[in-house]
Structures are given as C-alpha cells and as structure tokens.
C-alpha cells in the first residue's frame, strides 16, 4: 500500500471518469486534437532535452564530464 493512504484512492479515478463521461458526452474538434498533439510533441522534446542534460550533469552518459562547466562546453553550438 502506498503512503499516504489516500493515494490508493487514485485507482478509482478512471472509473469515476467513465461514469461522468457517460452522462455528459465530450466532443473533440479537430482543432482540439491538433493542439493536444502539438503540445504532446513539444513536451516530449523538452522532456528529452532535460533527460540528456541531467544525465550529462550526473555523468551518467559516456563522454560528458561531471561538472556544470563541462556541460556548458558541450552545449555551445
């Protein structure tokens, strides 16, 4: 069981969402889906950049130094 105890209640969120959406249908337009896709793609790029940067800072990737000055050296384009 997770701590704090109330975190375990999050397993019910999909069920309650399903029940709620059965009562009031949700309509998605093409613009909404396009905006969500663009947001997801851009967020993925940002997340990937952060992962590479953190690996470089922690020295988890071969070829990177463990200091911030070494990371700054690699980030200059």
Could you explain the architecture of this structure?
The protein is an all-alpha fold and 77 residues long. It has one domain (5-75). The protein contains 3 helices and no strands. The protein has helices spanning 13-23, 30-58, 68-75. It is flat, with a radius of gyration of 21 Å. The N and C termini lie far apart (48 Å).
Number of helices: 3
The biggest beta sheet reads:
none
Question: What would you report as the Rg, rounded to the nearest angstrom?
Answer: 21 Å
**How many DSSP-defined strands?**
0
Q: What's the domain count? A: 1
Classification by helices and strands: mainly alpha
End-to-end span in angstroms?
A: 48 Å
Mean pLDDT across the residues is: 81
| Helical fraction | 55-70%
Order of helices and strands: HHH
Give the structure's gist in a few sentences.
With 77 residues, the protein is mainly alpha-helical.
């Amino acid at each position: 069981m997770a701590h704090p105890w109330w975190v375990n209640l999050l397993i019910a969120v999909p069920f309650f969402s399903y029940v709620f959406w059965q009562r009031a249908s949700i309509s998605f337009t093409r613009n909404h889906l396009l905006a969500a896709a663009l947001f997801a793609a851009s967020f993925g790029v940002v997340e990937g950049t952060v992962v590479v940067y953190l690996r470089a800072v922690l020295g988890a990737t071969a070829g990177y130094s463990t200091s911030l000055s070494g990371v700054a050296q690699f980030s200059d384009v």
